[in-house]
Every structure is written in C-alpha cells, then in structure tokens.
Amino acid sequence: MRGSRISSRLVVAATLLSSALLLFCCFTTGDANGRLELGYYSSSCPRAEDIVREQVTQLYHKHGNTAVSWLRALFHDCMVGSCDASLLLDGGVSEKSSPRSFGMRNFKYVDAIKSALERECPGTVSCADVLALAARDGAAILAGGGPLAAEMPMRTGRLDSRVAASHADVERAIPDHNATVSEMLAAFAAAGVSGGAEAVTALLGAHSVGRVHCANLVARLYPAVDAGVDPAYGEYLRGRCPTADAREDTRDVAYARNDRVTPMVLDNMYYKNLLARRGLLLVDQRLADDPRTKPFVERMAADNDYFHDRFAAALVALSENNPLGAGEGEVRRDCSEHEGKVRSRIFGRGRLRCWDEHATGGTVCCWYWTMTTWVVMVVEDQEIACLGQSQSIVSMDSFHAAT
C-alpha cells in the first residue's frame, strides 16, 4: 500500500515535471541556432517595429538625448559577447555598474518602449530586439531621416540573456577612450563587424552626437594641452573642464559636446573636426593619424551620404553579433530582470510540491512530505542546483510561507 502511494506520487511528479518543461519552452521561442530574419514578428506581433518607432519618436521629442542613448546602449550591449540585452539586467554586479558604463542613462525609457510592446503582444518581443530597433530608429532621427532609415534593414528574433557579463568581461570587450586603432579594429572584429578599418571609422562617427564627460578628457588637457589638439580648441575644452580633478561620482558632471557645430545631428562634421585636429577623445583623433583609417576619415569628411551608407551597414553588422540560440536565452517581460527571477514558483498538491527556476534552464525540483520534512523526489539532472531550495523548506509551516 505504501509503495503504491509513493508510485502514484512519482507519476504526479513526472506529470508536473513535463508541464513545467512545456511552460519553460514557451518562454524560449526563437531559432535554435540564433539566426535572425527580417520581419520576424510579422505574424506574432505585426505592429512591433511600428510601436518601437512610435515610442522612439515620442521620446525624442520629449527628451532629445534618448536617441543618442539608444546608439550607445546597442554598442555596449553587442560588444560584450552577444546582442542579448544583458546590459539591461540589474543586480549587484551588472554591466550597468561597470566603469565602462559611466554616464549611460535613459534605461527607464527602454521600459517605456517595452511596456508599449507588452500591451500589444505580451511576452513576445525581446528586450534585445528593443535595443536594436531603437538604435536603428534613433540613428535615423538623428540623421534627419532620408536614406539612412532605408539603409538599415534590421533583422530581428534576438533572445535575452539570463545573466549579465562580469565587469572584467566588459572591460576586455569595450575599448576605452584612449584605445589605439589596432585595439579598436580587434574589438569590433571580435564583435562580428567584418568591414575592417572602413566599418570602424564609420561606427565611431556615432561620436558626432552626444557629449563626453570631463573625466575622459582631462588627460589631454592637463598639465598641458596635448600637442595633437588644435590650440584654440584646447582652450575651449579647458573652459569646459576647468580642473584636472574631474570626478565620475558627482551629480553635476562636467562635459563637452562631441561636436559644437551640429551637436545633435548624426553627420560627417565629426570627420571634418578630426582633420582640423578637433577630435574630442584620443581614440577619435587617432583615426585621422593612422594610415589604415585616415583615407576613410577623409572620404567621409567629404561625402555625408557615403558616411551614412557605411555607418548603416556597420551598425546592422554590429547588431547581429552572436545571437543566442533557443536554448540559451529567453524573452523577458521586464528588461531589468530575467524571467527565472520573475517567474520562479512552487506548485503541486497534496504531499508533493515542485519548484521551477527558468534561470537554470528549466530545472524542476520536487519534494515529498514525509510528515517530518520535505525530501527531494524528482530532480532533472541538476540535483545540486536544487539542494539549497530543498534544505530551506524543512517544515510544513515554512513550506506554506514559501508558496
């Protein structure tokens, strides 16, 4: 009699396990090999790209700097392993908190775009695709529309990472403001941008818009202005950054605009400034000095349409870096938290209870109540991953408190 009861419990456990795994698969749609495609949401969420474009446009008219933020967010996300929205995850050690991410903002407006998509198509459009589409639409706005928008056919179908990269990974993947041209070429090649010096020169044209904090400039200004900087421009920058003691932790951070002439237009003024020795960051000015990139600086300075064409191609290439396969990612409802954190739960009935955690790849642990404690009855190939949870449920009272 006792044996039959335990057997029936195991049947229930197996049923619950199958149900949990079926539930898990529903949150990891996407191509098994991580392939992207144009119009990925044409059936599941036909208005997805329109909604993103509408939200990006509305936010731009309310907060113009959001369009710049989308470009930087895509760069930071895609350079670190994959375009997988790992940048957006909160936590004690997050990519957001890396020193390389200093000055990044407007993450709350990603939530606004995602909320609009969730109202239309719950649990369908990934946060990684939100970042990619927002960057495309933001770039088109900053460029004044026209051909740039048509030149960026953005494939979609990305999945969201369940974990953020470490600070060490971020530091290795994202070059700093003093990087050499060789370091830049290597970093972008590792991120899937195969266009070499031409593509890297075009992508750095994103520095045509936005601003740079003085903490990243003062080494070129003090104790003396870098000899490679136009003297008049150096004096202007010293006015913007009046002390070498520029800090990264103050609320009112001093900064200088990347481009004083057209500061909120994505255009070739950036390259004209480089040729005039008015590159804001050392990594910028090096493009005009290195024989591998100088010809492209000169050509882009002379031809804005050529710059836009090469920038669009390079941005699309970067946005497709190493997409996650179906078993590697998920579609987050909240871009700052992985689905496992949001949807972990305990379920079951009678003496059998199961707990599933999507962050561990759908691991389901089940316990059977022996009248004195809960013991692990079913574990899907990851018993160690379940022990902490099983040990924390040591009585009926504490179990009920956890449900």
From TrEMBL:
Q: Which cysteines are joined by disulfide bonds?
A: 45-121, 78-83, 127-335, 214-241
Name where it's found: Secreted
Q: Which cofactor does it need?
A: heme b; Ca(2+)
Highest taxon, organism lineage: Eukaryota
**Which residues are recorded as binding Ca(2+) 2?**
259, 262, 267
Signal peptide (residue range): 1-32
Which EC main class describes this enzyme? oxidoreductase
Q: What does the record's cofactor remark say about binding? A: Binds 1 heme b (iron(II)-protoporphyrin IX) group per subunit. Binds 2 calcium ions per subunit.
One Gene Ontology cellular component term attached to this UniProt record is: extracellular region
Q: What is its EC number?
A: 1.11.1.7
Query: What is the protein's major site of localization?
Result: secreted
Catalytic function, reaction form? 2 a phenolic donor + H2O2 = 2 a phenolic radical donor + 2 H2O
Q: Where are the transmembrane segments?
A: none
Question: What does the entry list as the binding residues for substrate?
Answer: 175
Q: Which residues form the Plant heme peroxidase family profile domain?
A: 35-339
Function per UniProt: Removal of H(2)O(2), oxidation of toxic reductants, biosynthesis and degradation of lignin, suberization, auxin catabolism, response to environmental stresses such as wounding, pathogen attack and oxidative stress. These functions might be dependent on each isozyme/isoform in each plant tissue.
> What family does this chain come from, according to its entry?
Belongs to the peroxidase family. Classical plant (class III) peroxidase subfamily.
Name of the protein this chain belongs to:
Peroxidase
